[in-house]
């Protein structure tokens, strides 16, 4: 039970990190109609920028400066490159962002190398946030920080890392800030109006191209912030963009193209879908045999029937994507365009 609780929290924390990524991508897609294939590359840049800046100004300052630097880079890319091909349609936009992802990958490898970096969290974020202790005598209990060795020798202990708790806190703060920006500020109202009536917004005297550049920069900043937190939680390496690159598109499609609420729900769903099955080391053959079946190595389809749920966990989000496209193409909370 303690491991299930920890895996659930791991799934929620990973889902919230996916939301930090998918929210920026969703914002860019809903406003500009651009499916940014280089969005995960901005996530990688956030981790590498923070790694370098941490050695110069410290981690906490880098946590603020690195995402802003990524946002400036994203805004400059929109202003100098993406805007020039926007008038030619979606295919050139896809191609230029796809090309940017390869350019960023090669630049990162040239500057920081091809191996992973030792991007350790600061001392205040090291160690467990709390420990779940499960014993036959006292049942399930939660101890803040690390439980003593004596307690863990007499009971089963599962630790929840402080970096995961920090990730959840940053994601929730970002969600609150994004909601306040879009619903409680003047620029947020202009952004929402530009989503559906850009000509009217421009007629009222607002610079719509500047708003587009701002939105692209904000979306890149969100990805950079996720990269900083993900860099200290997971591994900072050139392959980190490829690891999350495909899954965030699954989140956007499952949640509904252009829906921030849908992206939030889908992020949590997919985060849990990738972590909770890891606790189930049972296969379909085991389930059939439990109900009186006789499934063994000589049975038809044995290579598939013997795959455990933990082994199948990485492909479950993509199976969900296929089912969603078949049964509900508009996504969980999306709206089909006419």
Put the structure in a nutshell.
This protein has 15 helices and three strands.
Range of strand content: 5-15%
Average of the residue pLDDT scores? 87
The number of E-state strands comes to 3
Largest sheet entry: 3 strands, antiparallel
What is the number of helical segments per DSSP (H or I, 4+ residues)?
15
The radius of gyration is 22 Å
Order of H and E elements: HHHHEEHEHHHHHHHHHH
Molecular shape: globular
Through-space gap between termini:
48 Å
Poorly predicted regions are none
Give the helix level as a range of percent: 55-70%
Structural class assignment: mainly alpha
Oligomer: single chain
- The spatial strand order of the largest sheet comes to 2-1-3
Describe this structure in words.
The chain has 338 residues and is mainly alpha-helical. It has 15 helices and three strands. It has a three-stranded antiparallel sheet. A hairpin with a 3-residue loop joins strand 1 (128-135) and strand 2. The longest helix is centred in the N-terminal third of the chain and has 31 residues, at 2-32. The termini are far apart.
Write out key terms for the chains shown:
3-stranded antiparallel β-sheet; 15 helices; 3 strands; 338 residues; 6% strand; mainly alpha
SSE blueprint and pairings:
Blueprint (H helix, E strand, L loop, with lengths): L1 H31 L6 H19 L1 H27 L4 H23 L15 E8 L3 E6 L4 H6 L1 E6 H23 L1 H11 L1 H6 L4 H26 L6 H16 L4 H16 L8 H7 L11 H4 L3 H4 L3 H12 L11
Helix pairs in contact: 1-6, 1-9, 1-10, 1-11, 2-3, 2-4, 2-9, 2-10, 3-9, 6-7, 6-9, 10-11, 10-15
């Amino acid at each position: 039970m303690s491991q299930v609780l920890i895996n659930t929290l791991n799934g929620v924390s990973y889902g919230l990190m996916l939301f930090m990524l998918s929210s920026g991508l969703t914002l860019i897609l809903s406003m500009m109609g651009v499916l940014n294939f280089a969005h995960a590359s901005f996530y990688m840049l956030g981790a590498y920028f923070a790694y370098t800046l941490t050695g110069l100004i410290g981690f906490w300052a880098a946590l603020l400066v690195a995402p802003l630097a990524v946002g400036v880079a994203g805004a400059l890319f929109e202003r100098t490159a993406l805007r020039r091909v926007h008038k030619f349609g979606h295919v050139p936009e896809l191609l230029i962002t796809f090309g940017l992802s390869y350019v960023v990958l090669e630049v990162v490898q040239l500057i920081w190398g091809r191996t992973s970096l030792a991007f350790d969290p600061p001392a205040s974020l090291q160690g467990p946030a709390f420990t779940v202790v499960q014993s036959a005598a006292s049942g399930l209990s939660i101890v803040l920080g690390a439980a003593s060795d004596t307690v863990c020798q007499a009971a089963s202990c599962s630790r929840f890392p402080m970096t995961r708790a920090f990730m959840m806190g940053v994601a929730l703060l970002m969600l609150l800030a994004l909601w306040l920006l879009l619903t409680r500020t003047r620029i947020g109202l202009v952004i929402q109006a530009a989503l559906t009536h850009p000509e009217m917004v421009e007629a009222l005297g607002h610079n719509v191209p500047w708003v587009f550049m701002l939105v692209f920069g904000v979306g890149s900043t969100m990805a950079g912030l996720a990269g900083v937190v993900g860099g200290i939680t997971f591994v900072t390496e050139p392959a980190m963009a490829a690891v999350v690159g495909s899954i965030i598109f699954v989140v956007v499609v499952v949640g509904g193209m252009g829906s921030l609420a849908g992206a939030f729900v889908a992020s949590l769903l997919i985060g849990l879908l990738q972590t909770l099955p890891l606790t189930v080391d049972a296969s379909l053959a085991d389930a059939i045999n439990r109900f009186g079946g006789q499934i063994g190595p000589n049975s038809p389809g044995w290579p598939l029937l013997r795959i455990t749920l933990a082994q199948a966990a990485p492909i479950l989000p993509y199976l969900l994507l296929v089912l969603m496209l078949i049964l509900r193409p508009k996504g969980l909370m999306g709206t089909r365009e006419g």
